[in-house]
Amino acid sequence: MSRIVKIKKGLNIPVPGSATSHLTKVTPAAVGITPDDFPGYRWRPVAAPGDKVVVGTPLFEAKEDDDIKLVSPVAGRVENIRRGDRRHILDMRIIPEGRPDECVNIELPDSIPDFGPAGNRSKRFDSAEWLQFQDKARAAIKHSGLWAMMRQRPFDVVPAAEIIPDNIFITAFDSAPGAPELMNSIDSQDIYKGLQVLDALTYGTVYLGCAPNQANQLEVVANQKAVITVFDGPHPAGNVGPQIAAIAPVAKGSTYWTLDIRTLAAIGYLFNTNEIDMRTVIAVTGPEVSNPHLVETLYGADMQSLLSEFDINRDKELRVISGNVLTGYNVERNSGYLRYPYRQVSIIEEGEHIDEFMGWASMSPNKFSVKRMLPSGLFKSERTYRFDTRLLGGHRAMILTGELDSVFPFDIYPEYLLKATMVSDYDRMENLGIYEVAPEDFALPEFVDTSKQPLQQIIREGLERLRADQ
């Protein structure tokens, strides 16, 4: 029987336009790989414009460890490398040609050592069998590009090259506004194989967090290779941060790996087939899309191809977001790409030219609020609200109101941590829990924050400074 954890602090933002279960396939006209989506390393290109590539061909390698690659999600030709200020690489564009699923071969271990059920294992990490498997498995995951799709806590970066994780946390669902079901079209054999691999790469335990309706299925699929925990509650219940906080909070000196179940399945697929699967299922959502539904496509697909078959309101100035409305990237509709790790595209109105009586102080019943100053805050209902990008207020000094804590399911004082981070007080940052959090954990606090401070940016910059000084 899976343990059930109730997440009480959080908020489900009622954005209209969630995707239906209808699924279409989109073959992109181009794909783009953005190195900034993979923090923690400095990336140098190893492919040049005009080069022919297949699925799995290295496009970038980490300067700190040239075994860690960013690979092509499609067979084709490198068209260009786009650079910004000081020759900073923005993205690499690949045009699909020929057979788009042609794939490189990755050298895999002969077998996976079995250490018994999760939580009841006597691991012998000094054994020759384990050492041989570890070296080959880590090399395969690095060369396949899947290493860069995992994250490490603390710091929320691509995992360090040689550190063995104390625990591994996997989330099987996304609770963000309009997010798709992550387990759609995943083969259960790939999930099990991925759990076998990760189980043999950690000193500790593989934890798999799921929604209540997924527990029975995952108990069967995992077959004692992971500890299943059910998380029930509002967003951010599907984020891996609150799941870690509820089970085994990150302490100084600990290293955890985190990933979602689609990345887990991709690792399993690699070890089952010796092929790299760069397909993904995304949801195109938002109040300005009249036919929101699911799309099967490739990582890095160009936004113009993705949105070509959707009925989008063309009478308004729109913002296209690669990701959800809380943490996603603003991308150009005609030249942007699907950014990693997002499996969603959200489209909302910019709102700059909206004329509203009394502006941000309007008491309109069509405005959403978490406070009891507007009708939506006084009378809870199941209705949705058409959000746009306006701040509806101005930047001001941070004040201690407790409003951030109401949507922050950590045993942490968020305002105090943010203040310590803003002044780079490393001792206080460590004592207040900086190692436990990632920028996405502050997305909801940023949404409800009266001071309109860029909380996610503050945490990201603080983590980078702390990591650089260690």
What does the model show?
- The chain is an alpha/beta fold and 470 residues long.
- It has four domains: 28-96, Beta Barrel (OB fold (Dihydrolipoamide Acetyltransferase, E2P)); 106-123 and 154-273, no CATH class; 279-378, Roll (Ubiquitin-like (UB roll)); 405-468, no CATH class.
- It is built from eleven helices and 19 strands.
- The chain has helices spanning 128-143, 188-199, 215-222, 240-247, 261-273, 303-306, 375-378, 414-422, 426-431, 443-448, 455-468, and strands spanning 3-6, 20-25, 31-33, 43-45, 52-53, 58-62, 69-71, 76-83, 89-96, 151-153, 167-171, 206-210, 227-232, 256-260, 279-285, 293-298, 318-322, 329-331, 344-349.
- The strands form four sheets. It has a six-stranded mixed sheet with strand order 1-13-12-11-14-10, with helices on both faces.
Summarize the structure.
The chain is an alpha/beta fold.
Indicate the multimeric state: single chain
Distance between the termini: 41 Å
- Sheet-strand content, in percent, reads 15-25%
Count of the separate structural domains: 4
- Tell me the series of helices and strands, N- to C-terminal: EEEEEEEEEHEEHEHEHEHEEHEEEHHHHH
Mean pLDDT: 92
Poorly predicted regions are none
Q: What's the β-strand tally?
A: 19
Q: Helicity, in percent? A: 10-25%
Main β-sheet description: 6 strands, mixed
> Which of globular, elongated, flat, extended, rod-shaped describes the shape?
globular
Number of helices: 11
